[in-house]
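Notes to self, Acetyl esterase/lipase:
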Amino acid sequence: MEITANHGVFHIPLENEGWLDAYLLAEGSTRQAVVICPGGGYQMISHREGKPVAEAFNQAGFHAFVLHYKVAPAPLGWQPLHQLSQAVAEARQQVALAENTAVSGVKVAVCGFSAGGHLAGSLGTLWHRNDLFPATTSFKLHRPDALVLCYPVISARECAHAASFQQLAGPDPELCQLFSLEEQVTDQTPPTFLWHTLADELVPAKNSLLFLEALMKAQVTAELHLYPRGEHGLSLATPAVEQPENQRWADPHVATWFALAVEWLAETL
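result:
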């Protein structure tokens, strides 16, 4: 594996043409990291939900990694999930090296937006499945310690974002059902922070509500924030990531999600 650096960002190749951008803090900073999965409907990678979020987590005191997962051709099947699994393990190992500590001492959260939230939730709910992730070590490097799901695609049912599931599962109804994440939550799912806007018409807030309900049934620690206004895809909801052509405006109230998530991670990891 060849790791290259560009202006302080390390590029780490993954299987199937994926890669990680690593935003590592100075040695001795922290043993906590966040792997970020930008959205894009499994058709593209939203840069507004990548680098700016990594830099924000750096400023909050976390090592950060942005996953560039496979988005074409469809159907993608298990490829993005296996790339995220590899990314979490790689992030854990990179932080262990940077901090001169054991991998078991590194805590890794996965933060996903929209379809990237679905990808993060997929690993969070399925990481323990030996049929999907053969156990090679007693300590599972790919297990997320926490999830931060931002306006996530969750359900393949009545509130589904059909394009994401078509891109992921194609015409396979069994695979589509397996990727309906509210059906996959168990007590093995890590603690989860969710946020959504009630005005989101592309991926309705019911997705987050269904996931929260499943987490509660499984007695998994969770926190949900619902904001009354805001289009889908607000990212940090700050001026730096505004997208006026798609009505994605900065909103100081919605932007509070990030500080709330950081506070929650500090208590959870």
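- Helices lie at 51-59, 79-99, 115-126, 162-169, 173-178, 206-217, 256-268.
- The domain at 4-268 is CATH 3.40.50.1820 (Rossmann fold).
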